[in-house]
Amino acid sequence: MAKSLMIQGTMSNAGKSLLVGGLCRVLKQDGYKVAPFKSQNMALNSFITEDGLEMGRAQVMQAEAAGIKPTVQMNPILLKPTNDVGSQVIVNGEVIGNMSAMDYYKNKPKFIPDIMKAYHQLEEEYDIIVLEGAGSPSEINLKENDIVNMGMAKLAKAPVLLVGDIDRGGVFAQLIGTLVLLEKEELSYVKGLVINKFRGDKEILMPGIRMLEERGQKKVLGVMPYVYVDIDDEDSLSERFRKKDASGLIDIAVIRFPRISNFTDFNPFECFDEVSLRYIKSPDQLGNPDIILLPGTKNTIEDLLWMRQNGLEAKILQHAKAGKIIFGICGGYQMLGQSIRDPEGVEHKGEVRGMELLPIRTVFSAEKTRTRVAGTFGNVEGILKSLSGIPIEGYEIHMGTSELEADGKSLTSLTDMTVQTEDTIDCGKADGTQKENVYGSYVHGIFDAPETAKGIVAAVLKEKGLDASNVQAFQMQEYKERQYDLLADAVRKNMDMETIYKVIEQGMQE
Questions:
Q1: CA dihedral defined by 110, 114, 120, 121, rounded to 10 degrees?
Q2: Which domains, ranges and CATH numbers included, belong to the chain?
């Protein structure tokens, strides 16, 4: 059976996900078959596996670092917040319904068999499993029936490294305070401490490290620097949202919805020197961008009304009228249509007017579409006509369906790659819509193909009368591999891997 190691943190955003990814990469480089695991993830950034199941993107990133395909066993429970006090609950990749925070809290023990079944499946296939906790193991109000921090460590008999974030300040209090609040048995699982996101001279830290080891009776097994790598972030805490620079030759504005999801769709644009990509949430931040991107959202109708109320919708309509590119993905695509109807109250019972920029009408239903797709752009019109015929591969994950009106023109032709039937093999399905310079699609990952992002950047440069001859297609997969290797280099240099290997080998000996 597989050995294990668990990374827990003193708080959210302590850097657990990235550290797990780095360790997975190191272990892979050293010849081990390694897999990530997080029993319960709360995130709006999700992913569809090859078998059409839904999981959190953090474990997808970690699986990529480990050089393996992501499977739902790596994240058996995914919570997608629908409001401040409730979430859609996804178990083993399938939606089981919406629950209030209190209902989920009471029902957590019922999910333990699902969690352990997934974990045991990974145990049978891999040499080492690197587990990730959530938030902090010392949250007093959440410790009862815990299934993601020390509760999971006990179920998996996994030794723990406790990580603190020095970038926010107070790292010594974080680590000592967490240890003080742990029970005696829980303390026995903690085999070492890690100080994360350090900027500066490590020698200055040494008095604090000595005191930390003396007071906490745990060795510091690493001081990780603030690592500048371009790797997918957890959604609600992404530093990408802080970017406000519009100094590039091409200015792209992404609407930061209150319940924004799958914003990683736009990462390819950040890889071009010619582009400034920024996230905005008010009309005064919009400026005069060349492209406005509307991302996915967990609550399409509420976020559309949010734009309508704060004035962003009116600004976007002005830009569309001026011939600027507007491109919506998933929920953002639905918003661009004529209307959104929700007869069953999946999100917001009733019907609302869309932005009326695309000739589609959307109707919500309780059934969620989850599928991987492949195909091509059709005969694209407007500024982005150079995309015509370029291959597409990605995934769809949405509630409801959108029907083209009689004068509607499809943007792509796609084949469903998850459920292979005679119909889906032989016939492409129309997806997405275009009208003048307004475009929309359900496909997450539509910009990932090297020629797609390049084509958009080059087309906009030409539209502005600028030279586009030096724009190069960006090889996203090669770029990601380099980033994972850089992360692994930082882990090897700054973590006591010799001791960590001993911790993994010894496990939680009886």
A1: 180
A2: 3-231+481-506 (3.40.50.300), 250-465 (3.40.50.880)
